[in-house]
Amino acid sequence: MTPAQHPSAPSLTRVGIARRISQDFREGDVINLGVGVPMLCSLFIEDDEDIFLHSEHGVLGHGRQARTQDEVDPSLATAGRQPIIPRPGMVVMDHAESFALIRGGHLDATILGAFQVSVQGDLANFWLPGAIAGAIGGAQDLAFCARRVIVAMQLLPRPRRFVNRLDLEMTAPRCVDRLVTDIGVIDLEDGRAIVRELVPGWSLEDAQRLTEVELVAAPEGIAEVTLKSDRDDLWHAA
């Protein structure tokens, strides 16, 4: 299934997925953003918000991802080598101290990308078949130790992303709490996939065609995804 097969239903872009994730951030949260779509969440954090972004190589309280070459400081980047800008109060620490922060359970959330996630919450995000080696980095520590694990995932262009059982190398078992996808928001609870939100125009039946996992409507009903932003790059048109 592709957007072309759903002419009446839009979907979220990568930026749109990041925007929806960022709407769950709360004042005082300490959050680690992974490479790719997760790092785009930083674009939606206002300067006056007390949200503390962490990078596992030793930065706490950094600002958003650099937008232009003029903003790039080659000495200031995330563990994924994404350039970031400083923020008042930012702390630079050594590697051991940074991982002590992670392993001590002080992260309110980590936002990760994934090659696959199972309905049990198993995560695979560091190695693909055919690659010489994977790059696991700090993903295992983040997945095991963060209080909440949210995965940014595009379901439409990539089959077999959300599955009953992983067939890729596992990063960490039973760790994923929520999927924020290009068609909606799915919570993983006790081996069940609870659909909380869907993009306007999508039904539960439409979403079911994208995955082998049995999808269950939230008890309170399925809400529509709402993005609190007027940016024009959040949606793929119907």
Automatic annotation (TrEMBL):
Gene3D superfamilies (alphabetical): Glutaconate Coenzyme A-transferase
The entry's keywords: Transferase
Enzyme Commission identifier(s): 2.8.3.-
Superkingdom as given in the UniProt entry: Bacteria
Keyword Transferase found: yes
Molecular functions (GO terms): transferase activity
Matches recorded under Pfam families: CoA_trans
SUPFAM superfamilies: NagB/RpiA/CoA transferase-like
InterPro entries referenced in this protein's UniProt entry, alphabetically: CoA_trans_fam_I, NagB/RpiA_transferase-like
PANTHER family xref list: KETOACID-COENZYME A TRANSFERASE, SUCCINYL-COA:3-KETOACID COENZYME A TRANSFERASE SUBUNIT B-RELATED
Protein's name in the database: CoA-transferase
Organism: Streptosporangium jomthongense
